[in-house]
Amino acid sequence: xxxxxxxxxxxxxxxxxxxxxxxxxxxxxxxxxxxxxxxxxxxxxxxxxxxxxxxxxxxxxxxxxxxxxxxxxxxxxxxxxxxxxxxxxxxxxxxxxxxxxxxxxxxxxxxxxxxxxxxxxxxxxxxxxxxxxxxxxxxxxxxxxxxxxxxxxxxxxxxxxxxxxxxxxxxxxxxxxxxxxxxxxxxxxxxxxxxxxxxxxxxxxxxxxxxx
Length: 212
Prior knowledge:
Layout: E1 3-9, E2 14-20, E3 25-29, H1 36-49, E4 52-57, H2 63-66, H3 69-76, E5 80-83, H4 87-96, E6 113-114, E7 117-122, E8 125-131, E9 140-144, E10 149-153, E11 156-157, E12 160-161, H5 171-182, E13 190-193, E14 199-200, H6 201-207
Parallel strand pairs: 3-4, 4-5, 5-6, 10-13
Antiparallel strand pairs: 1-2, 2-3, 7-8, 8-9, 9-10, 11-12, 13-14
């Protein structure tokens, strides 16, 4: 059974997720830790729960979702795993971080790239990969089928959707991704987004103004 912990970090109020099961192995998704206080909050949670980080996953590679990649690598020796189509997005962070006034510790490059479909495993648990581009060129979501929840990154938010005005964004592609990849999941599937509160597939199908 997968447990989920949300920690909200950095000036963008980005949601970082820690997933763990009864084996105490855990997955870190989109680490956004930006300063020593936030890094300590992450380490303290993992240590207090007695967890062993075994995977670092990025839904996509915008700055707010990769700010903590270097810290995770330095602390637990994990390099990020993402879709190869996000590599250019990751490399571009170095050039635009100073313009945003953000101190960026450069993320290590992935050694393992994730496919558009497939499964990642940790402990006794698994997460299905869902390819949902539009906010970024090769965005992935991570679906815990048995537990009926989705770590959705910046695809679908409570009553909103991800922005598409950044390089590699495509509004129609994002709408298509949501309709064909996310809205086919069960209505009671919870969606844990990259920003803001959780929502559900059924609620967004009924209420999201961008998808009427």
